[in-house]
Specification:
The structure is a single chain. The protein is α/β, with parallel strands linked by helices and 417 residues long. The protein folds into two domains: 158 residues, Aspartate Aminotransferase, domain 1 (Alpha-Beta Complex); 226 residues, Aspartate Aminotransferase, domain 2. Strands 2, 3, 4, 5, 8, 9, 10 and 11 form an eight-stranded mixed sheet that branches. It has a six-stranded mixed sheet with strand order 6-7-12-13-16-15, covered by helices on one side. The termini are far apart.
Length: 417
Amino acid sequence: MKFSKFASRFDSSSGIVQLMDDLGNAMAGNNDLLMLGGGNPSHIPCVQESFRESLLRLIENPSLFSHTIGNYELPQGNQDFINAIVEMMNEQYNWKINSNNVALTIGSQSAFFFLFNMLGGEYDDGTHHKILLPITPEYIGYSDVGLTTNLFYSYQPVIKKIDDHFFKYHIDFDKLDIKENTAAICVSRPTNPTGNVLTDNEMIKLQSISVDNNIPLIIDNAYGEPFPSIIFTETKPFWNRNTIFCMSLSKIGMPGTRTGIVIADEQIIQSIQNMNAVINLATANFGAMIANNLVRTGEILRLSKSVIRPFYQKKLEHALKTIHKEFDSIDYYIHSPEGAIFIWLWLPTLPISSDQLYERLKSKGVLVISGSHFFPGLEDSWEHKHQCIRITYSMDEKTVEKGIKIIADEIREVTAL
C-alpha cells in the first residue's frame, strides 16, 4: 500500500518511534528487559498517593466528575487549571501573565508540533523558515515533528572537560550564525538527553539574540522549575512576550494524562487554541482536573522541591557511583548531570557506532538510546554524534546496577575485538 508524503515522515526509522516502541514493549510485560533508555518518570509512592487522593476527590464530587468525562473542554484547556497556573507563575516569578497567555495541549510533544509548524516551514510568500537549535545534542522528539524537510539547523557545542570523567557542553556563540530565514530559537533546560542546564549568562545572550532578530525564544522546561524541579543547579525561570515557555505534567509523575502547558504571547496562544480545535476538538480534562488543587494549594511546589528533586538526586548519585565502579579501565566521560533523569555517556574510543552498541545491548536485554538520534539539524559529519548513549536512572537501583554492568562488559568486549 502506498502512503502520502505526510505519512512517510512517521516511519520506523524515527528515533522517537524507536524509543516509544521499545518503551511500550518493556512496559507491556517483558520483565527480562532492563529499561535504561526510556523517559518514564519514577513511581514515587508519596507523590502517586497525592495524585490518587486528588483523583478520589474528583470522583467523589459528582459535578466535577461529570464535567471531567462528560464534557468537551475549551480548545484552550481547562480554565480553572489555567487560572491556577497563572496565579502560581505570577506569585513565584512576578511574570504578570493572564489567562490569555496560557494554553494546554495533549502533552508537550503536540505543543512542539504546533509551535514548530506554526513558526517554521513554508510561508505564503514561498519562503522556507527554520528553527534554530543553538546547541546539540537536543531532545529526540524534535527531529521528526516538522511537516516540511530541513526544519531545523543547529551547531556543534563547545566541549569543556571538567575532570577525568566529566565534561559539559556550552553554546558556541562565536559560531552562532542567525540565518535570515530563522523563525525561532529553541532550547530545552534542563536538556534531554544530556542533563545540561544552560547557564544564566547563556540564556541572557539567547534572549538578547531573539529580541534583536525579532524571533521568539522557545524554552522547553519539561524538567525544570517550578515543577517537577528535577534540576540540581540554581536557576530562575524568566518570561517576556518574546518567550514561549513550555511545561508538562509528565515528569512530575503523570505522563499518562498527556498534559502540556504553553505560556506565550496572546497571538501564539490563539493559534494553539485553533490547532487544538481542528486536530483534537478539545484538550483532555484528566490531567488538569487532577493537578488543579495541587497547583492552587502549592502542594505541587512542595512535592517538587522536597520530594521529587531529592529523590532523583539520590538515584543520580547511586547511578554515578555504579558507573565509576563498573567502568574502571574504560575511556568514558559523563556530561555534568545538572538536571533531568538521564546520564549522557561519551565513549571517545568506542570502536563501533552508538547505533551498533544499541543493537548489541538490546540483544543482551538492556535498552539504552543511541546518541546519534539527538542531533537534529546538525548537518556535518561529526564523529562525536556516534560516540554517545543516553541512560535513564529513574528505574529501581537493581535494574540500574545490572544494566550498567552489562553496558560496561559489552564495551570491553567490543573494544577487545
